[in-house]
């Protein structure tokens, strides 16, 4: 008969014997030994979500787009991934690294409310849904809560990436004031380098002076941005995306009248991705027992 192999390593066998002889309480007096017998805490998807929204002002929200879009609240989390857009590539990479929960800032199914009835005949929708079901991936959207955090999680991540977090003013959270005025071309060069953006859209003059910057990351309603132009008259609006027949034309007409406000368009992904990269660090501190990774969804556009 083949001899049965000892399932325990010598070190583990020693720990089991030591625990029986000395008792767990005695071992706690020896940090290295106590650490060896402790097990990592396990979390369900719901427990993770509860931890993430615990300190958000006003949480839980009665109305929000931040819902679980796939998977189960009860499933055990093996790893967490943060991202901007939960693309097919992001889902596949999450599977490869053993993460079964994706915390995504933007929509899974191509509309803000993640409604799917209109996609019943769409083969891409069905492929994505089947991929998530096959690998039992939970996707939770982290949009409203992350923006409602104080300071706004996306803004903080972006400002850290730019090295501008020290200029943040909580009394005017969207208005940034640089310590000294700089030529617009220098500000643009800094943003391109830090965000690794090859090309930008600009309505403005590269030689003009910039000191005050209005932050409009993501997709901000044009009425809100135009209202901010009226109130603050910023030198520059740092925008994610905007309708070209609204804010863009207001800025252009203003400049034709001699106004100074310029508009820089980063693109939606570029304008919020650093905030989701920061989210991975933030979540890791709150849940140290689970590996948290950031996966970039990437800019979907080619510049030709």
TrEMBL record:
<comment type="similarity">
    <text>Belongs to the GTP cyclohydrolase I type 2/NIF3 family.</text>
</comment>
<dbReference type="Pfam" id="PF01784">
    <property type="entry name" value="DUF34_NIF3"/>
</dbReference>
<dbReference type="InterPro" id="IPR002678">
    <property type="entry name" value="DUF34/NIF3"/>
</dbReference>
<protein>
    <submittedName>
        <fullName>Nif3-like dinuclear metal center hexameric protein</fullName>
    </submittedName>
</protein>
<dbReference type="InterPro" id="IPR036069">
    <property type="entry name" value="DUF34/NIF3_sf"/>
</dbReference>
<keyword id="KW-0479">Metal-binding</keyword>
